[in-house]
Amino acid sequence: MKGLELSQRYYETYGKKMLEEKFPELRCRVAAGLVGQGSECLGFDDGISADHDYGPSFCLWLTEEDYGKYGQALQKEYESLPAVFEGVAARKMSVHGGGRVGVLCIPDFYYGLTGFSQAPEHLRDWMRIPEEALCTATNGKVFEDPLGEFSRIREGFLSYYPEDVRIKKIVARAAQMAQSGQYNYARAMKRGEHVAAMLALAEFTKSTISMVYLLNKKYMPFYKWMHRGMKELPLLSEIGDILNLLAQMGEQSGAWKDAGQEDYFYTLNTNDQCVIIIEAVCNIILQELTAQGLTEGEDNFLENHTMKMMGKIQDAGIRSLQILEG
């Protein structure tokens, strides 16, 4: 059984009854659900995931005032609920898995994941929050929230980055993709620096995945799940399949034995299959950047589009940031 389904069924069976019988004054004030760290909150859990931080559990979110008044007593009752549910053993907590479920304070919950107790008001503050942190704070499912306070803050984060911030992050990813994949990979291979080339491919892959999420206006998950999550994106999900080919590409040093003097410049050595894949990915990205009105022209070197995209940013402060910042 998927963790989210298990959590909701466990809450419906035991959590509601506990609130109604032991804390009737909180029944219309507590938000319940499962949000935060863990593959089950993304719906990506499987049999392998069940070896840690998996089992009957849920979150109960209280306002700061209610948490101070009822938090300790409510947590004690939560811990007294049956540990085994529908044949699923008690939650196996890893060394660093504490504090993910149980009774939680709403502002502390969001602050612990994002550094902010609610969605920021200023663009610079939005720039500071990593994509994966925002994904963690907005994933999962809220089973019910009669008071609406937890969901109010959640919706503020779910509204996504302000457009100027999104564009600035897109600019940074385009520059990173160009530098790592379209430029430094080939130079490293030409020099025989195979570890540097591997690192360049890793940087290119991560920047590309982030770019795809930004173009979809979706927060990118933690690195372990960022590629898996691409399957569910409405735009450019095919890039996930192409990156899978890149990851499985065999050793390419043979393609560089007879490389010409200039073949390392701007990935001209198309005997290297990784070069071909990198250029294909950048071309697809360029088409979507154009479709979203962020740039124009057919130059496939993404770095040459960064200044055009910077010109789309309205806020002078964000527009003045260094090209790779974001």
Please, could you describe this protein's structure?
- The structure is a single chain.
- With 326 residues, this protein is mainly alpha-helical.
- The chain has two domains: 3-158, no CATH class; 163-319.
- The protein has helices at 3-22, 64-79, 106-114, 123-128, 131-138, 149-158, 163-191, 194-216, 223-229, 238-248, 273-291, 306-310, 316-319, and strands at 31-34, 59-62, 102-105, 141-144.
- The protein has a four-stranded mixed beta sheet with strand order 3-2-1-4, with helices on both faces.
- The radius of gyration is 23 Å and the shape is elongated.
Morphology call: elongated
The amount of beta strand, in percent, is under 5%
| H/E element sequence | HEEHEHHHEHHHHHHHH
Rg from Cα: 23 Å
Count of the separate structural domains: 2
Q: What's the helix count?
A: 13
List low-pLDDT spans. none
Number of strands: 4
The neighbouring-strand order within the major sheet is: 3-2-1-4
Mean pLDDT: 93
Distance between the termini: 38 Å
Q: Would you tell me the structural class of the helices and strands?
A: mainly alpha
The percent range for helix content is: 40-55%
- Main beta sheet: 4 strands, mixed
Short structural summary:
The protein is built from 13 helices and 4 strands.
Features of the shown structure:
about 325 residues; elongated; mainly alpha
List the helices and strands and how they pair.
Blueprint: H1 3-22, E1 31-34, E2 59-62, H2 64-79, E3 102-105, H3 106-114, H4 123-128, H5 131-138, E4 141-144, H6 149-158, H7 163-191, H8 194-216, H9 223-229, H10 238-248, H11 273-291, H12 306-310, H13 316-319
Parallel strand pairs: 2-3
Antiparallel strand pairs: 1-2, 1-4
Helix pairs in contact: 3-5, 7-8, 7-11, 8-11, 10-11
